[in-house]
Amino acid sequence: MVSKIKKKTLSFQDTIFNLQKYWSKKGCLILQPYDLEVGAGTFHPATTLRSLGPKSWKTAYVQPSRRPTDGRYGDNPNRLQHYYQFQVLIKPSPKEIKKMYLNSLSSIGINHEEHDIRFVEDDWESPTLGAAGLGWEVWCDGMEVTQFTYFQQMAGFECKPVSVEITYGLERLCMFIQNKKSVFDLIWNDEGITYNDVFHQSEKEFSAYNFEYANTDILFKMFEMLEEETKSLVEKKISLPAYDQCLKCSHVFNILDARGVISVAQRAEYITRIRELTKSIGKVWIESQS
Amino acid sequence: MSELFVELFSEEIPARLQINARNELKKNIKNFFIDNQIKFNENFNVYSTPNRLVLHVDKIPNEIKLNSEEIKGPNVNAPEKALEGFIRSNNTTLEKIFKKNTEKGEFYFFKKDSRKIKVSDLLEKNLSEIFTKIAWNKSMKWANYDLYWGRPLKSILAIFNKKPLNFVFNHISSSNKTFIDKSLEEGIKIFNDFNSYLKFFKQKGILIDQDLRKKIIQNKINEIIIKKNIKIEQNDRLIDEIVNIVEKPMVIVCDFDNKFLSVPSEILITTMQSHQKYLPTFNKKNNLTNNFFVVSDIKDTKGFVKLGNERVIEARLSDAKFFWEKNKTQNLVKQVDKLKNINYFKGLGSYFDKVQRMRKLSSLISDDFLISKDKIEIASSICKVDLMSDLVGEFPELQGIVGGHFAKFQGFDKEVCLAVSEQYLPNGMESKLPKKMYSVALSLSDKLDSLVGFFGINMKPTSSKDPYAIRRMAISLVRLIVENEIKIKLKDLIVYTCSVYRDQGYEFDTKKIQNELSDFIIERLKNYLKEKKIRQDIIESSIFLLGLDDLLKAYKKSKCLNKNIKKEIGFETIAAYKRSSNILNTDEKISIETLGFADPGLFKNEYEKKLYKKINDIRKYFLSVSKDENYEESLKILSSIKNELNDFFDNVIVNDEDIIIKKNRLELLNMLCKTFDNYLNFSKIEA
Q1: What average pLDDT does this structure show over A193-201?
Q2: Average pLDDT in the A78-104 region?
Q3: pLDDT band (50, 70, 90) for residue B602
Q4: Do the chains contact at B154 and A99, CB–CB below 8 Å?
Q5: How far lies B38's CA from each of B63, B100, B118, B603, in Å?
């Protein structure tokens, strides 16, 4: 009797490997995650800053992303305050980018001829980055698996040339591939380690920190200090260290927001302050590129 | 006769941009043919799929004849170089140039022979500009190019008379080729005419014509709903969007677990429609069923699409159900205090402050509405609590509605629940209008509080900016009052609202708010009446003598006059008024001041007396009706003065030699006009 070869389920880490290999073959520089807390892969300087200025650039990397308000103490099957994005940034946007993207899905087992892949309008805007782009969210059989954006503006500057950014939500994508209803059931590797094993405790504790224990007095002070530090570094014309401080500001703001101590009006004010920082950094960066 | 066939192939263009681009392209190409006096089939069409914008015009001549014309050149006294340039630019020789006198002097002329121009040449020269003229609602740039388009444009296929048109549009050269595979942008194929193009794609299941796609989708859905004995809600916006995000529509019936039906249906419907673009279905009793339609862009041969979409809705509904179960048991009353933690608006306090104000305001309104003070105060207190729930966090568009469900679950009075649910209604001109008095009272106090607050901190909308949708708020207020025929003293309510703010420590300039807000609301009433297709002069007249407290009256009077203005009662009323006021206007200039009181002792004949009596009868009528005036009846009574007035004008000379008698007659006419003012100020009505 010939035993059926059971199709191996693509693990979480294999999904990442495959995407890295795929984009590496397409000429992307494979970078590592940025070592600061950020809200999305876009905040990595390899996207934010590199999308500015005239030089060509191609990269792909995984970025852990933190959204303190999205924490659910590990109780919700679809919500995390810490999750992974796989980010691709190519400048200028190549002509065959859609084909490249669809083939990248094939590399992780999603054949576009068998699934309803849809490019649904979703224009993107990041008020803190002073950034805007046009594009889509990509649906696979009704599930949003990717953000696909042509940057038009970054840090308040017009993008020329225009970069294309592809952001895969790795957990969502894997839930689709592995056919799981809960993110915590995702299979991380071939040894049977699950997402739950790796992150459940972290989700629980960080939710408690973000919603209950974060010391808001200290955080408010930290924001002021970090803002001041950013400004002083901008004056020294060192954009990368200035940008680090600005990212920290942004994260502190996100925790304060999760703690519910920022009113609607204050919120707008904080966002404006961060945007002003980003803009001043963007200016210094662009000057350093020419 | 030939056809023009163009396909602009791009990455996926969003539905509303496609619709806009189709219309723009249609308009621009039409103008091109008209401007160049080229005949064409005016019933042409522009089609689109997410990737293909397609233009097809037929019955176009291959050539057009341009008549001979004289072309004016430089003045004969101009430097020789000018003449040389003129000869060169017209591609002619000196022998063919002649001089001719015009009004402005003697000029060189050249007679251009009649000639034929190929339409294909004209198209090649102009298509690029026609495309540039497309005004996108939103457009973008990509790569290194300078072109703006809805999404990256990849190729242009352009055919005239079965032959390719060759031109360059920015960085793209036109050809007779396109990509067959829209996903990978592969499979290049040549097309030389529209029909073979349509046919080719139809064989692949791809429908270029959006109307055809719509029909196919609707037919398929109808087929299924008949079979399953269910129905869908008419939702043109959603259908039009769906039609324009697929090229080969496949309708799939999916279902979700029945257990989710315990969640309020608005939440389920919103999840399906606005988040996933699914079509929910209902049974014959109008209850939501667990079947829903997905329109896929691919044939679901392996069942992946159905499975995937069902999993997505399962996850989304689980989320919603989880929040619903959690939030519904959280005591609304106990949470009111927590509203202190959320800001309503900078300078206007927290939501706790707002509901306290609303409570006082609605309590006062309840006296006029003859509704229970207790109930409306409860509704006011709890109405904003749902803003703190996870559900409203997830579904902001369901604020209020969700609160109403919480209240219902927690056993609040039915009218209280409905009021909470409808507190944001109406939301603008088109939205649903609450009818129950508790709902109206709550909505009214919410809007009044907001309007007074925003005017108080000087956040009034400007002509171009209205970020807090304050105009819409005021229009909604107008609708609440006039459409529900509510008689309230809006002026007093504004003053009271200011005092409620003052109790909380806000120092507003009551007088200023009252004036500005009054003008603002009356301006909205005018817009409202305009929307109701009431003549501009009637609108102006109706609000001329009426104030903020008379919104309903102004609405009813103008509506009634608008309806009757071409009928006898309207026509005669205006004629009577105009005839009288015209004399007054001419004579008043001769400086006779009239007060509107005639002295019967000075009357010289029956006609004056009869007219005087008639006017007095009308006055008595207006004194007696005041509250329950039937406006059509009023117009009828006004118009009935016709006979007395005609007799008066036929037999009495106003312009008597005796200045006292003359003045008295003018007084009589002024009295008539002033009496007519009881309806409205007719002086601004155009006869």
Answers
A1: 97
A2: 96
A3: confident
A4: no
A5: 9, 32, 11, 75
- Closest to A124 in 3D by CA, of A150, A86, A85, A94: A150
Separation CA B388–CA B686 (nearest Å):
55
- Report chain A's mean pLDDT, rounded to a whole number: 93
Strand, helix or coil for residue A48: helix
The verdict on a CB contact (< 8 Å) between A93 and B143 is yes
- Rounded to an integer, the average pLDDT of A194-216 is 96
Distance from CA of A119 to the nearest CA of B (A): 6
* Nearest chain B residue (CA) to A145: B312
B345 CA: distance to closest CA in chain A (Å): 7
pLDDT of res. B666: 87
CA distances from B263 to B254, B323, B401 (A): 18, 10, 13
Would you call B311 an interface residue with chain A, using a CB distance cutoff of 8 Å?
yes
What is the SS3 assignment for B457-478? CCCCCCCCCCCCCHHHHHHHHH
Q: How many CB pairs under 8 A join A and B?
A: 119
Checking DSSP bridges between strand A164-169 and strand A117-121, what pairing results, if any?
A: unpaired
Which residue of chain B has the CA closest to A160? B144
Cβ B304–A115 below 8 Å, yes or no?
Answer: yes
SS3 B331: coil
Give the pLDDT of residue B623. Answer: 87
Residue A2 has pLDDT above 70, yes or no: no
- Contact state of A141 with B184 under an 8 Å Cβ cutoff: no
Rounded Cα gap, residues A247 and A257, in angstroms: 15
Interface check for A107 against chain B (CB to CB < 8 A): the answer is no
- pLDDT tens string B268-283: 999 999 889 999 999 9
How many Å apart are CA A79 and CA B276, to the nearest integer?
A: 18
For residues A85 and A16, give the distance between their C-alpha atoms in angstroms, rounded to a whole number. Answer: 10
Residues A39 and A27: their CA atoms lie apart, in Å, by 26
Question: Contact, B666 vs B594, CB < 8 A?
Answer: yes
| Contact state of B345 with A142 under an 8 Å Cβ cutoff | no
Phi-psi category of B522—alpha, beta or left, where left has phi over 0 and alpha has psi -120 to 50? alpha
Q: What confidence tier does A6 reach under pLDDT thresholds 50, 70, 90?
A: low
CA distance B467 to chain A (A): 14
Grade residue A266 by pLDDT with cuts at 50, 70 and 90.
confident
Q: Which two tokens stand for residue B478?
A: 């107008």
Question: Coil, helix or strand for B498?
Answer: helix
- Determine whether the interchain pair A162/B151 forms a contact, defined as Cβ–Cβ distance below 8 Å: no
Task: Pick the closest to residue A94 from A40, A121, A136, A57 (CA basis).
Answer: A57
Distance CA B608, CA B648 (A): 6
Q: What is the pLDDT of residue B680?
A: 87
Query: Which amino acid, one-letter code, is at B399?
Result: Q
CB contact under 8 A, B308 and A112: no
- The pTM of the full predicted model, rounded to 2 decimals, is 0.82
Task: For chain B, positions 144-203, list CB contacts with chain A under 8 A.
Answer: 144, 151-152, 154, 183-186
